[in-house]
Amino acid sequence: MKKYKAVIFDWDGTLMNSEKRIVSSIQHAAKACGFPVLSHDESKQIIGLSLENAILGLYPDADQHQVVAMAEAYTQFFLEECSVEMEAFDGAEALLFNLSQSGAKLAIATGKSRKGLDRVLSECGFGVYFDMTRTPVESASKPDPLMLAQILEAFGLSEHEAVMIGDTTFDMEMAQNIGMDRVALSHGVHQMEVLSPYNPVAELNSLQELNAWLLQRV
Length: 218
Hints:
The protein is an alpha/beta fold. It has 2 domains: about 5-15 and about 85-215, HAD superfamily/HAD-like (Rossmann fold), CATH 3.40.50.1000; about 20-80, DNA polymerase, domain 1, CATH 1.10.150. The protein has 10 helices and 8 strands. It has helices at about 20-30, 40-45, 50-60, 65-80, 90-100, 115-125, 145-155, 170-180, 190-195, 205-215; strands at about 5-10, 15, 85-90, 105-110, 130-135, 160-165, 180-185, 200-205. The strands form 2 sheets. Strands 5-4-1-6-7-8 form a 6-stranded parallel beta sheet, sandwiched between helices. The protein has a two-stranded antiparallel sheet with strand order 2-3. The longest helix is centred in the first third of the chain and has 18 residues, at about 65-80. The relative contact order is 0.19.
């Protein structure tokens, strides 16, 4: 059985159940900036990308000024005004604790901003479990594999010694682009039917299933 020295997690939709808050914030920003408000299902498809890429994914005709304005409206609403609660998926902290006890290196590769990630890690207390985190602010948006390359370089590991855990095609494609094993979770944003074509080494439905799978492999 293959053993991994590092486990790299996506954040939104993988460890944190934040879909409703993200979509609410996207819809608020669209309305505030005069864009058509898309449905929940349409809006959630871009979760995982950097904010700028997400906005352009939904509104490809937006110019740079409009992208900046919408990004500012989104960030303000998400961090300061939105009343939609978000919480970690069941089993998230137990999984991270068990992995930290195993000696494996833990990292996050997320589409969130640095400000947003640091804030939520502080609020939920999960920051203590991670050896390194990467956001598009100091890297590149998924599916570009630069975040993974930076993490591997910092850990002194090859792509074959780490595994990426995610819930979107962006996570799967990013790992595939660098030749890293990937695990697909069905409890997040994208359905397993669109994740499966990226040939994940495991297709799992919960963090409890992931816990059992990973602890045999670190």
